[in-house]
Write a structure and sequence with these properties.
The chain is about 35% helix and about 0% strand. It is an all-alpha fold.
Length: about 130
Amino acid sequence: PEPNVVRGEELYEEKNCLSCHAADGSGTGANTGPALWGENSFNDGAGLSRLTKMSGYIKNNMPIGAEYELTDQEAADLSAYLLSHERPVWDGHDTDFPGIEGPTDIITKDRREKIREGTFDWTEIENVVPAEE
C-alpha cells in the first residue's frame, strides 16, 4: 500500500510507540525501545532503512504483546513516518550493490527530504500500490 506519513504519525501515538521509543524517537533505554531516528538510531544503509523491511518488522514484531495486529497499511504508514526522520547517513550507497541495481525501497537522505516536503513519489518503490484518489 502507498504509505501515509501523517497517518503514521497518528499511529505512533495511538499505538503507544512512544512508551518504548519516546515522543522524539530517541528510545527510552537499553532494555526498552531503541532510537528510531536521530543521531543514535540506525543509519540509512541499514536493512531497516528499507521501507519493506521496516514495514515487515513492524507488522510482525510490534507492538510488543500485540504482534500481528497491525494491518499492512498501518505498518507501511508507521514505517514511512519513522523513516522520514533524520538519521545518520551511510556513505556507501553508491557501492552497496556492485554490478546489480539495488533495491528501490531504500530511504536515503534525499528521499527523506522529499517525504517531509510531501513531494516523494511512492511509486518509485517497487510494488507500492498508489492510494486511491
